[in-house]
Write a structure and sequence with these properties.
Distance between the termini: 50 Å
Number of domains: 1
CATH architecture: 6 Propeller
Radius of gyration: 21 Å
Low-confidence stretches: 1-25
Number of helices: 1
CATH class: Mainly Beta
CATH topology: Neuraminidase
Strand order of the largest sheet: 16-17-18-19-1-22-21-20
Helix content: under 10%
Shape: globular
Strand content: over 45%
CATH superfamily: TolB, C-terminal domain
Largest sheet: 8 strands, mixed
Mean pLDDT: 88
Length: 260
């Protein structure tokens, strides 16, 4: 009896496939690769959450309670880093620099901080209603992720959400959006626990390209050295990306290569 039911089920599946045609499993989103331009040292004890580059300087936010920091250091390593330590109750997350200020968010505390970018002196605390994951800006608005498929656009002066977008690929929502960087009109986003960066149209939320960084530095999930890919900074001088990950011993400056 069980055998007859199984045969009938298989026949129905075949008949459905004949009528409806094969499922479309091919993604329409192109996948790009990379080439390495240069490697830089990176603190292998840093649980990297946010990365930003400006005029030879790296600004970095790190996570884990008791170990969350804001770092400011020369990309070439020739300057002693400036460090601001967060209170141990905070788990640092994304970071960006806008109008002479550093904006940093935290994970579950719904609390963000604004610092003077020159001294790292705290200026202001702000609050939001979601989790905090990644942070960037488009010169006019801050853009924040919270681990879902939603991106939030905030007015920098008031920190009020002015609008949101839903991120999709092939009309399917993409969640686990993490560290962000705004580059030439597009939002680049790490996707948590993957080796891919999504390139997102901020007008529609559609992922228009994937950047596959497989092989850049192998990682083992849930182990300290090295951790997952996380951290995207843009170097306009070379039109290149500077990328790293959690507990990575290196940062890589890369160029995007079209096609796999």
């Amino acid at each position: 009896m069980y055998r007859n039911k199984l045969i009938r089920k298989l026949l129905l599946i075949v008949l459905f496939s004949i009528i409806n045609g094969p499922a479309n499993t091919q993604s329409n989103v192109p996948v790009y690769s990379y080439t390495i331009l240069k490697e830089y040292p990176h603190n292998k004890n840093s649980f990297t959450q946010g990365l930003f580059y400006e005029n030879g300087t790296i600004y970095e936010s790190t996570g884990q309670k008791g170990y969350s920091r804001v770092y400011k250091y020369a990309l070439n390593g020739k300057r002693t880093p400036q460090i601001h330590k967060l209170d141990s109750k905070y788990f640092g997350e994304g970071l960006t620099v806008l109008d002479g200020k550093i904006f940093q968010i935290t994970w579950l505390s719904s609390t963000g901080f604004i610092y003077d970018k020159y001294s790292l002196r705290p200026i202001k605390t702000f609050h939001y209603t979601t989790e905090g994951w990644g942070l960037t800006h488009n010169s006019k608005e801050l853009i924040m992720s919270d681990g879902t498929s939603t991106l939030y656009f905030l007015e920098p002066a008031t920190l009020r959400v002015v609008h949101t977008i839903s991120v999709t690929a092939d009309n399917i929502p993409v969640k686990d959006i993490n560290e962000l960087e705004y580059i030439n009109g597009m939002i680049y986003a790490n996707i948590w626990k993957t080796q891919k960066i999504a390139i997102i149209d901020p007008q529609t939320g559609n992922i228009i390209q994937w950047l596959d960084l497989t092989g850049l530095l192998d990682y083992t999930p849930h182990k300290k050295t090295p951790g997952v890919l996380n951290g995207i900074a843009y170097n306009p001088e070379n039109d290149s990306l500077i990328v790293t990950g959690k507990y990575w011993p290196k940062m890589f400056e890369i160029k995007i290569v079209k096609g796999h």
